[in-house]
Design a protein that fits this description.
single chain; nine-stranded mixed sheet; about 25% strand; elongated
């Protein structure tokens, strides 16, 4: 860690955490997204600091956030804030400033610390055959909102109302253990839509649950030297082509080469995959290698 990034004792915790974000990370995000254009009362960095404070204090009320920031007073000088924002100014910034600035800020910060993440976290060989940095884990989680801002998921409640929500899709490299890609959509969004914008390096292995099952996508992965491991859907149509030998004493009860039948643009297609079933797990491992 560089000398300028060392945490200084006596500063509020928020300032100590913010000191870990180099100024060039902010500048790079500002230059790329033009986030300060047409904003005079609340600059992008001040906006981020206020939102960051709301997150670490778990406070969702603009009124309370602004009140608590006032209590920090001159301590905020360490964060670069010289003027305490009014609630109306904070609200306008939330409404008008594009989320692309915060997205770019995260990507810049991830790139800045990427070498540190690779060097400092554990190295986990997968069965002694695959390096951890080759494994990319896909997952999603739904965040329920208090009102119908975005379309919610699931059935309507008895009263006929449904809360809105966000579905957050993430991709995490197994070695780094932090997201290297984040995408937010309405809670009703299907996981397979996330796959269309997801990019994998050649030789990578995508690890995901069966909510991400899209057979045409899996076929394209295997054709381009990219691989996957997931669970097969219960209603999948397939034929067993070959029974592979299973090592005695292993957790695998069966290992098969299968031809899976699916439809793409109303045309039936067939693609070959491997399917193994565990003795201790309810679902098998469906993979393309």
């Amino acid at each position: 860690m560089q000398e300028s990034q060392k945490i200084k004792a006596g500063q509020p915790i928020i300032c100590q955490l913010l000191s870990l974000i180099p100024e060039e990370v902010f500048k790079g995000a500002l230059e790329k997204t033009k986030a300060n254009h047409y904003y005079k009362k609340m600059l992008a960095k001040d906006h981020f600091v206020c939102l960051f404070y709301a997150v670490i204090t778990r406070n969702s009320s603009l009124r309370e956030v602004c009140k608590q920031i006032v209590l920090l007073g001159n301590s905020l000088i360490y964060c670069g804030i010289k003027q305490i924002p009014r609630r109306s100014t904070f609200s306008d910034a939330n409404k008008e400033r594009s989320e692309k600035f915060f997205q770019q800020l995260y990507l810049n910060l991830y790139a800045h610390y990427k070498s540190y993440l690779n060097a400092s976290t554990f190295s986990l060989p997968i069965g002694g055959e695959v390096a951890a940095e080759k494994v990319e884990v896909f997952d999603s989680t739904t965040i329920t909102l208090f009102k119908e801002i975005l379309k919610g998921a699931g059935r309507n409640a008895i009263n006929g109302k449904k809360k809105g929500g966000l579905k957050v899709f993430t991709k995490i490299n197994w070695l780094e253990n932090v997201p290297n890609y984040i995408c937010m959509k309405a809670a009703s969004a299907n996981e397979t839509g996330f796959l269309s914008i997801m990019k994998l390096d050649e030789g990578s292995i995508a690890l995901m649950d069966k909510g991400f099952n899209k057979y045409s996508y899996f076929a394209r992965l295997t054709e381009t030297n990219r691989f996957f491991v997931t669970r097969i859907r219960e209603n999948a149509k397939y034929e067993v082509d070959e029974q592979n030998p299973v090592q005695e004493g292993s957790d695998i009860s069966s290992d098969e080469a299968i031809s899976l039948i699916y439809k793409e643009q109303k045309i039936s297609r067939t693609v070959s995959f491997d399917w193994s079933h565990s003795k201790t797990q309810s679902a098998g491992r469906f993979s393309g290698f």
